[in-house]
């Protein structure tokens, strides 16, 4: 198989260098590495070019989604690996994912700072429009070592068949970053295009290396994109039927943001998402029964999620998409 590695970058030269080192060690090497530079000022693109990568200047900080889309369009491989610049891959990462018969695949992504803890495995989303990266911040264990079919892969370190984008399209660039991958996963689900979680493939992720987990811009984008995810993917009748879970999930997430000193950013994001909800577009021809089944299965997984947020969500909503 031929692989094109697509890496969006906004500074973080040292982290990018570690990723390139791990790409050089792959047993199944990428035929090309495309670095999409979102306006770095620390020499990251120059270093990547000197290492043999093809650097494409975006001309500004266009966001993760726009940079990745540009890389996918420029890529020549049969498979496209989308990688965060702050991730490192085990040497057999591509080889193991490439054995998957699905349309896309991702592995077990561990925390770089706490290698015994999960950074992410695959994504799930509840009726309320809030997503959880399964296992995030949990201790690694047998529960995360079982392969399975998935509807959404974290674009932290995932491998996609190039033909998938001809079927589904690209990331929604208005999202910029956060939830754009969940939106893409739901669009794949609508078309019956599944992926695989391959736990034998391991990577390590620094996490929130660009802005930080509770930076105001991070919270604003997540809050806004949660609204757009619902408006784009939940048909009107389901939005009305699930109005209570949607309110509960969105408000609870806001409470978490407030606890981290980002309440105003959450308010700004919700206002922006609601004000521009029509411009966010909608995914056509969603089968309500299919989406309800997806959320029902997802919420079964989410019942094992740690933290007060999910305990309160299920306490207040009862769980179980109808």
Give structural notes.
- The chain has helices spanning 13-24, 44-50, 64-74, 93-97, 162-168, 180-190, 216-233, 236-241, 243-259, 263-275, 288-302, 308-317, and strands at 3-9, 32-37, 54-57, 79-83, 87-89, 104-111, 118-120, 123-125, 131-133, 148-150, 157-161, 195-205.
- By secondary structure, the chain is an alpha/beta fold.
- The chain has a domain at 216-317.
- Strands 1, 2, 3, 4, 5, 6, 7, 10, 11 and 12 form a ten-stranded mixed sheet that branches. A two-stranded antiparallel sheet has the order 8-9.
- Helix 1 (13-24) packs parallel to helix 2 and helix 6 runs parallel beside helix 7.
- The longest helix has 18 residues, at 216-233.
- It is globular.
- The model has no long low-confidence stretch (mean pLDDT 93).
Strand composition percent: 15-25%
Rough shape?
Answer: globular
Main sheet record: 10 strands, mixed
- Gyration radius, rounded: 19 Å
Helix vs. strand class: alpha/beta
The number of E-state strands comes to 12
End-to-end Cα distance: 42 Å
Count of DSSP-assigned helices: 12
The parts where pLDDT drops under 50 for at least 5 residues are: none
Mean pLDDT: 93
The secondary-structure element order is EHEHEHEEHEEEEEEHHEHHHHHH
Helical content band: 40-55%
């Amino acid at each position: 198989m031929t692989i094109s590695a697509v890496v969006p970058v906004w500074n973080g030269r040292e982290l990018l260098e570690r990723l390139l080192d791990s790409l050089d060690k792959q047993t199944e090497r990428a035929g090309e590495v495309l670095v999409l530079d979102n306006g770095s000022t620390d020499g990251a693109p120059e270093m990547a070019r000197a290492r043999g990568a093809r650097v494409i200047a975006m001309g500004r900080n266009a966001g993760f989604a726009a940079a990745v889309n540009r890389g996918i369009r420029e890529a020549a491989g049969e498979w496209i690996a989308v990688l965060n610049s702050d991730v490192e891959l085990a040497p057999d990462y591509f080889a193991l994912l490439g054995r998957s018969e699905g349309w896309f695949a991702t592995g077990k992504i561990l925390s770089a700072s706490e290698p015994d803890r999960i950074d992410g495995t695959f994504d799930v989303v509840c009726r309320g429009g809030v997503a959880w990266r399964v296992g995030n911040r949990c201790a690694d264990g047998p529960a995360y070592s079982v392969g399975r079919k998935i509807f959404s892969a974290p674009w932290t370190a995932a491998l996609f068949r190039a033909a998938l984008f001809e079927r589904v399209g690209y990331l929604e660039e208005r999202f910029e970053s956060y939830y754009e991958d969940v939106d893409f996963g739901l669009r794949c689900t609508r078309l019956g295009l599944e992926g695989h979680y391959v736990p034998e493939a391991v990577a390590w992720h620094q996490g929130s290396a660009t802005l930080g987990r509770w930076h105001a811009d991070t919270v604003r984008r997540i809050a806004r994109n949660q609204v757009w995810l619902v408006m784009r993917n939940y048909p009107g009748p389901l939005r009305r039927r699930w109005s209570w879970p949607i309110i509960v999930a969105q408000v609870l997430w806001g409470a978490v943001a407030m606890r981290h000193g980002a309440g105003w950013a959450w308010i700004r994001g919700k206002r922006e998402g609601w004000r521009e909800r029509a411009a966010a577009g909608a995914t056509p021809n969603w089968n309500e029964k299919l989406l309800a089944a997806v959320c029902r299965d997802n919420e079964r997984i989410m019942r094992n999620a740690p933290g007060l947020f999910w305990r309160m969500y299920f306490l207040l909503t009862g769980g179980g998409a109808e």
